[in-house]
Each structure stands twice: as C-alpha cells, then as structure tokens.
Predict the 3D structure of the following.
Amino acid sequence: MEKQSKLPSANLTKRRPFSSTLKSRLKDTFFPDDPFRSFSGESPSGRAWSIFAYFVPILEWGSSYQLSHFASDVLAGITITSLAIPQGISYAKLTDVSPIIGLYSSFAPPLVYAVFGSSSSLAVGTTAASSLLLASSIRDRVSPEADSEKYVYTVFTATFIAGVFQLALGIFRLGILVDFLSRSTITGFMGGTAVVIMLQQLKGMLGMEHFTSKTDLISVMRSVFSNRDEWKWQSALLGVAFLVVLLLTRRLKEKVPRLFWVNAITPLLVVVIGGVIAFLAKGEEHGIPVVGDLKKGLNPISISELQFNSPYISVTVKAGLVAGFLALAEGIAVGRSLALVKNEKTDGSKEMIAFGLMNIVGSFTSCYLTTGPFSKSAVNYNAGCRTPMSNVVMAVCMLLVLLLLAPLFKHTPLVALAAIITAAMLGLIEVHEVRRLFKLDKFDFCVCMAAFLGVVFVNMEVGLISSVALSVLRSLLHVARPATHKLGNVAGTELYRDVEQYPDSTTIPGVLILQLGSPIYFASASYLKERISRWAEEEENCTKEEGHDLQLILFEMSGVAAIDNSGIGMLFEVHRMLSKRNIRATLINPGLSVVEKLVASDFVDVVGKEWMFLSIGEALLGSRLALQEAKNHEEQV
Amino acid sequence: MEKQSKLPSANLTKRRPFSSTLKSRLKDTFFPDDPFRSFSGESPSGRAWSIFAYFVPILEWGSSYQLSHFASDVLAGITITSLAIPQGISYAKLTDVSPIIGLYSSFAPPLVYAVFGSSSSLAVGTTAASSLLLASSIRDRVSPEADSEKYVYTVFTATFIAGVFQLALGIFRLGILVDFLSRSTITGFMGGTAVVIMLQQLKGMLGMEHFTSKTDLISVMRSVFSNRDEWKWQSALLGVAFLVVLLLTRRLKEKVPRLFWVNAITPLLVVVIGGVIAFLAKGEEHGIPVVGDLKKGLNPISISELQFNSPYISVTVKAGLVAGFLALAEGIAVGRSLALVKNEKTDGSKEMIAFGLMNIVGSFTSCYLTTGPFSKSAVNYNAGCRTPMSNVVMAVCMLLVLLLLAPLFKHTPLVALAAIITAAMLGLIEVHEVRRLFKLDKFDFCVCMAAFLGVVFVNMEVGLISSVALSVLRSLLHVARPATHKLGNVAGTELYRDVEQYPDSTTIPGVLILQLGSPIYFASASYLKERISRWAEEEENCTKEEGHDLQLILFEMSGVAAIDNSGIGMLFEVHRMLSKRNIRATLINPGLSVVEKLVASDFVDVVGKEWMFLSIGEALLGSRLALQEAKNHEEQV
C-alpha cells in the first residue's frame, strides 16, 4: 500500500464552477478567435475605443495610411475595375436584370465594405452562383419578361433580406453555421453550379431567343435542342473565338504568373472588341444580339420600392436566405484564405456584419447581392493591394464609368458575355480535387458528388441541402459509433498502443486495455455497452484458452472529451455487468469534464477512488497490488 | 541520429484496404452486437439453421423447454393477465376505442411475440403514451363520436403502418435511430405524457360528458372549468377512494418487494369492486358512468377494413410512424434493461422485427398498437417468468375472458379506469431523476425540460421533436468545437497531462504540447485552425517574456479517432502557418485511420516522417536532436 500511495493518481478533486464552464463553452462556440484579447490591458475608455475601432476597421488602417499604400491600392483598384465591368454586366444578365444594375453593384457596396470590412485583399462584387440562385428562385413566380420592374424590385428585396440575415448572423456570432459547409460540399456545389451556369450560356452562345427558366441539365438540353431553328452561326463563331482568347490568356497566366493582369483585363477587351465588331457589322441585324440601351447616371435610390407586401414574399425570403448564406460562405472562405496567405487575422463574424451592411445599403441603392468573389479578390491580391482602399478606387472608377461611359456598352454582344461567363466557370470545376477526394476519403467524395449531381440534375438548393445533410449525418454517425481500440504493450517501451496499428505489441494475460472513443453521449451509450461486452467476451474466450481468467479491464479515457447523463448511466451498467462476471473495471486518466460528472454522479464512489489511475502503467501496478490484497484478505477471512 | 533511429516511432506503414474499412464501419454501425459471431465455427447447413433459429427464437428456447419453466411461466402469465384486463380496458378508453379492443390487443400480439421475441421477461400490451398519441393525432380528423367505425379502422391502419415501419427498421438494422432518444428525452417525455394523461383522466374522475380533444394543459383546464355543471361528486368520491387504495398498495410493494403481486392485482380488484358497486347502486343513474355493453367472442378479422384510400391517409401514416417509433423505443428500452438485470443478450433489431410482425398481425385482428410496457414487463419479471411462454399463458387466459367473462365488464365504472390510469401515471414522473440531471448536467436538464414542457404545453410530437433536436444540436456542437488542451509534465513522472486538471504540472520552455480533440471534421476545421493559432500566440508571448523562442508544437493525436478532407486541409494550413513563424509542427501517435489519410494526402511527406512520434517523451528527445542537427547544418553552411 505504501508504494501505491506514492504513485501519482488521477486528480479527482479539481472542480470548476458551472458559470466558468458555461463561459468557456460559450466563448469557444461563439468567440473561437477571442477578438478582444489584445485589449485587456488598456484603460476602460481606451478599451471602448479599441472595441469600436475593431468593428469599424477603417479607423484602424485609416489612421496609419501612407502614400506608398495609396499607389499600390490605385493600381489594384483600376485592375479590378477592368474586371468589374464585364463581370457586372455578365452576372446581371444571368440574374435577368438590366446590365446597368451589375455596374451599380460595384459602386455602393465596395464603399460600405471599405469602412466595415477587415480583409485587406477582398474585392467586392457579384458572383455567378448567387446571381443564378436568386434568378432561378424568383423567376418562377415573378416573370422578368412580363413585369421586369416588379422582378427587379423583388431581387432587391431578396438582397435586403440576405443583408439582414448576414448582419444578424454576424451580430449573434453564428459564424459556426458557415462551418457546416465542408470543403467537399463547396467543391461539389461550385462544380455543379459551374456546369449549370455554362449550360445557361448556350442561349447566348447560340444567339437563341427562347430558353427554359429551369437550370437542370435535362430541361436545358431539351430546350436547346427543341429550338434548333433559333441557333445562329454568327453568334456561335464569335463566341468560340472569344472563348479561345479567354482560355489562352488564362493559360498564359498559369505559365507566367506575373502576367496575371493580361488575363484580368481580357474580359474587358472582349467586351470592347465585341462591341466594336457588333457596332461596325450592325450585329443585331446579322444574328448577333446585343445588350441594348443603358442609361447614364448614378444608382437610383430603391429603398421605397422594396416589395414586402407582395404575395411572393415567402419565395423572396427563401431566395434571400439561401443566396445570402451562400454569398456569405464564399466571402468568408475568400477572406480566410487570403488572410492565411498574408498571415493576417480574420474574424468571420465581423466580416459577416460588413457583408450584411453592404447588402442592406446595396438593396437601398439599386444593387443586388454582392460578396467577395474568388476571381476578383485573387486579382486584387495579385495586383498588390494593401488595404480596402482598392475597393474605394474601384468605386470611384465605376462612378466615372456610370457618369460618362455606360451608354457605350449598349453595343456589347450577348455572346461576349456568354463567353466571359463560360471561361470563368471552367475554372471552377476542380476535377483534380474530386479525384483526390476519391483517393483520400470515400465519404467526402460522396458528399461532393451529392452536391454536384443535386445541382446539375435537380436544382441548387437540393444539391446544397442534400450534401450538407450527408455531412451532418456523418458527424452524427461519428458521435453514435465512437471507435474503441484494444491496446497492447509496444515491444521495448512502456507505451500501450492500438494492437491493430502495432501488430507486434503484446497483451497481458488476464488484462484487457480498451481505449474509449469520444464523446460518450446518448447516441453512443447503448452501442458502447454492447461493444465493451463483446470485447470482454472475446477476451475471456482467448484468455480461457490460455488458462487464465479475465480479471481486469482498463478503460483508457484520455481521449474522452465529454460524457453526458446517458453516458454516465452506461458506465454504471458496464460496471455492474463486469462485477457480475468478477471483472474489475478501472478508469485511466479521465479528463476534467469527465471527472466532474463521475464525481457528481457518485460513480467514483461506486467504483472506488483507488480504481482511477493516471496512466496505464500505474494502473497495472496499482490494481495488481489491490487485487492481490483483496485475495489475501479473502484467504484470511 | 543513431539514438533516434532506435526509438520506436509511429507506425506509418500499416494500411487497410478500403473494403475492409468499409466492412468494419458498416458492421459497427448496423451490427454493433455482431449477432452471428458464435456461429462462425459451424458447418454451412448448421450455420444456416442457427441463423434461422436466431431470428425465430422460439426454436431456440422451445427445444430446451422444461416443465419447471412451465410452472413459473404459468404463474407469471396469470399475474400479468390480471393486469392486462384493467390496463387493456383503460388504455382503450384513452384511445377512444371500445374497451373490448383493449382486451383483443392482449390476445393476438402476445402469441406473435412468443414466436419471434427474444426477451424472456417482456410482456406484451398497450401503453398509455402511444394510446394517447394515436388518439390525439387521429381524432382531429376523424371523430370517434361521429363515426366510430371509421375511427377505429383508421386506428388499425395506423397500427399496421407502425408495424411495417418497425419491421423495416428491424430488417434494415436501423436500431441506431432509437439510440437518438436519450435517457433525458425519455425522462422528460414520459413525465410530460404522464401529466397530460392524468389531465385527461379528469373527465372520468369528475364524471364529465364533454371534454376537449386537445391534450395541452391550458386547453384541458379551460375545458374542465368551463363545464363545472357537469362535475359529479359521486364519481369524484369513488375515484379518490380507488386512487388511495392503488397508491397504498404501491407503497406496500416498495416497502415489502415480495408482495409485488398485491400491487399487480389491485387494478383488477378495483375494476371488479367498482363494477359490483356500480351494478348494485345502479351507478349510471347516480352520477357514475360505466363502460357499457361488451360483446362476447374472439377478435374479429379486420384486414379487409384497413383504410388506405381514405383522405386522412397522410395523418394516419404520420400517427403510425410517430407512435410506432415511440412504442419501439419503449419496448427496446424495456428489453435492454431486463436483459441487463438477467445478464442476457439482446439484439435490438431482432426485437424490432418481432414488434413489427406483432403489430402487423395485430392490425389484421382488431388490435391496436402494442409494445412491451414497463409496468407489465416488470410484473412479469417479478412474478418469475422464465421464457416468452408467459405471454402465451396470458393469451390463453385472455381467450377465456373474451369467450366467457367479457360481458361482465360492462358494469366497470369509468372512474375506476381513470383512477387506475392516474395511479399508473404518477409512477412515471421521476422528480428525483430530474433533480439529479440538474445537478449532473445542465444541458441534459434542458433536453429533459424541452420534452416535458413541449408535451405539457403544446403536444406530444412537439415535445419529442424539440427534445431530440436539442440533443442532436449538442452532438453537432461537440463535433464543431472539439476540446483542445495544453499538456504539461506531471511532477515526478514522465507523464504529460492537461495543465488545467493538474495545476502542478510543468511546461518545457520553447515547447507547446497540445492534445487535439476528436473528430477533426469539416465543422471543426476552421475553429481548430483559429484555436491552435491562438494557443501558439499565447505561448509565444509567454515564452518571449522568459527569453525563449517557441520552437516546437507537439500535437498529441491519440484521441483523434477520425479526420476528413477538411481536417487534412486544416493540418496543411496550420503547418504552413507555423512554418512561417519558424515553429516546428510534430504529430504524436496518430491513430490508424488518421495515419492512412495523412499518408494518402502526402501530409507525411510535407511534414517529414521524422516528425511523427509514438509518444511525447520520444518526440521531445527526437525533435531536440533533429533541431540541433538542423542548426549545426546551418552553421556549417
């Protein structure tokens, strides 16, 4: 006994008050990045100012802004404007709204982001996926052809709802929701969306007039081939030519990264050259439809036109929520990956607030849903931007375009836009990544394919939801069936490891060491009971053959992060079951949150404090002694 | 280097083929108890027979049935019949069907269970919760008063659907679904249901004629007090008297457990005495309503009356699914807990098949939803039953009752039934358990209260669903925010443990040891990245004050049971982030399934094989050597 008491044993006395546990749980759930930690040393007023400046980042970077930064930002701002014009016009066509609204959307929202946004490289703009999602949800109910004014205000209303949703998620720090979009889901969803958007471009590429409002492969193919008489070879020819140019410049960028700007301005060149060709050749009369009239002037105010009393409000809300969530996910992901490259910090929830405000203001000023698109932000980063000032520069450039140049774009051929979108979408299909997923993780591959096939064959919501549902199912399965491993002694060491992984490791006769998986929750409690009972039985059969009895089961609990009421109940039942078979249950290194519950539920008293150990080695030593003593005691009696 | 290569290192070569991983995952998910493991040594034909006998347990226990078993089973069978009569009549009233159907339901289903059921102590019968659930779902659409025939056939149809659902769950081995009903949910749900059912008994206790068809507290209270003129003091007096007797005998059982049979037959006595009183006092004329006419004879066949083409089929299906699921959960839980006491094995999926067949046959023979109720099964166990033969004995007794005695029960006063139900329900409210939950686990307490309050104030479905949703949310939160701990060296040992739990443990300057939680999935990947970066920053600040640099982070991964594609991506990003800060990332003891993915994704090559260790001690030694060597190399260059 002397020796045993000298052994360090599992700490069963440390206890945290409920309030502090709750506080740390809430902090880890909602403030994983602990944004205010650096302000803790300041005076109250200084702290209040720091926190205010934290939420309005322009106060932070603006106060130390230098002329050298400005030069870089101007260059980057001009570069992204050259991308913003063709993208704005193209994606507006995808949303079935006037192209000028695409240009408006690169004026007001970037200004808002420059004030509230924290990423120094993110460039604001519309994206193909959310544009199509908005259009495909709304145009079933409000026809953009029949009542274009009502349609466009419904789109603004959806944008407003998306903004409020994003703002609310940010304020309540629900960035955790975005975590449930896995990489695999995003890969599959983006790939599927790219295919669907390219299919939509067949209308522009072939110069067709009638087209389905559905997005799935089968409907689109049927629509394309049932109107073969509308196909125009002039459009197709021009489209293929543009596409080749766009793809060649991308190839150039891949080969010679410092020529990225050639690739960045090609879309604008395609628009300009296409416009000149269409103007000179009187394209409209020769099978090359063009964009049509564009008004000069700044964004009109649209706040009083939002359609809250419309009969389609439920569709509008749904479209706003789904598209807003998607836009958020893309923006956050872009912000995070650029921050990683620049080794900066990001606060997802703060970004959400910035996106939310940007879309609310946008919906008041004739802009539709914007976020931080991958392509534009990457160009911004490559062009050497230093601060969100590059967004301001883009807004100023766009102001000039809107006031002076907008009418010129009326000659833009639709086929040029189709070619620009198609080229952009081709870059989103990551075949290599899908192949890697198949090799690496079959379940992730299924998650990815669920998103892809759902988007391509049904619609974007179904693709997204089925993929997320599969991912969540996987998480639940993990919780319901935590792994248990039998451990053995690795030759030449005092270490105990999984016998399946280390086949040379040896077990000790009469002793079974089981590593329990985490967490021990209601969903896994009855499984674990069955599984432990099976392990015990198998071990008993083995040891019996060798002439021993199974005397001891060590439960190695280092990895068990949490246990709930059902889990505690399971431990009681397992202990009772093992006691009936004369097997001792012993716990190794239960963690703090587990120990708290073991003590509170009196499990420690039922099993006995002396059967809780800090390590396997100690448990083997300690329990041998205790078993021996119990035996001696029996013999004496 | 010599020394390092002698150290045992993490096994990175062991690989399992995908098919075997999949097989073991599927087995753990669907066959956690591995029911066929004992047959593996037999010949093919012997094995086929064993498997057949496994699914038809009567072949197993019937072949070794002995006369001594029979004596015990007859005694138990008669005891449970004495409970089955009053319970059958009472719960049938709760379902708004004729009392005789309650008696039918204790005839056919027990015979089916005796053939396919594997629990030796489970007694088949109707339960209060699923009776009320069926009634409250269906009577909103089909009125039991206006069209009683249609109503009763709709109930049979719901029973059929419940049976098919149970059978399907069993065949596809989806017992895992039942695992998602936690103990806390069941405690809250049963308590809430007990309250709601007692409220319904106010009708019978007060002898009222009009009553609400809703079940929530507020509707019932309004209904009771708005019809105060219907209250009958004779009923109330008799009801209270019966209730006192019933509660006293329960108290007797608690004090003197071997007198359990007094408690078991009291309900029958109450029915008989109540009937005699009502008959002698002409109760019906004096404010004591009675059950009314009951036909003599066996169950009529109802298979051709099932209502599949009714306009209420969607309600019927929903009622069948929810009630079937609940009944299943109760039956499985009863089977499991009795098996635990008797140290037998249970196979949840096999039980589901038995329940499903029993309800399908039941719906064909004028029985409604049955399962293995807690109360009846406990009496069966206490009465010393040995095999499912006790169910056969009960069925035979019920046959005699139906053929000979049924008409006698027409005098049973409704208030006697109300008292029996009320007394039974009082036993289901576990105040003690709720108090324990509050002490042990605040979240489990919330889960329990969600079920309780949902059932009492809204309805049974809402209570059940909100409680399960909360439990699932908890599981998802666990997956999204796995715990990370900083480890330190426990004084006087070579062990490294959580510094929060072991405050005396010491850290090593320049080295941070982090224990990562499980699993590393998409939902936790970006959280972990932020958290690790925060740990590293805090440690850097600490070590800088002491004049050191943070050189090394050890990720202790023993507890990480699974990692997915997003998790692997996170590791790459963390490694890159740390490399930029000149900090070495080192992995300790990654498990088999993690290693497989680390290798497949080339992470091992990026980090370097030499930075994967089997234990912390070895990592400290090994990485010191490697860092030293790298430094020497630099100096030489």
Observations:
- The domain at 482-636 of chain B is CATH 3.30.750.24 (Transcription Regulator spoIIAA).
- Confidence is low (pLDDT under 50) at residues 1-6 of chain B.
- Chain B is about 65% helix and 5% strand.
- The two ends of chain B are 19 Å apart (CA to CA).
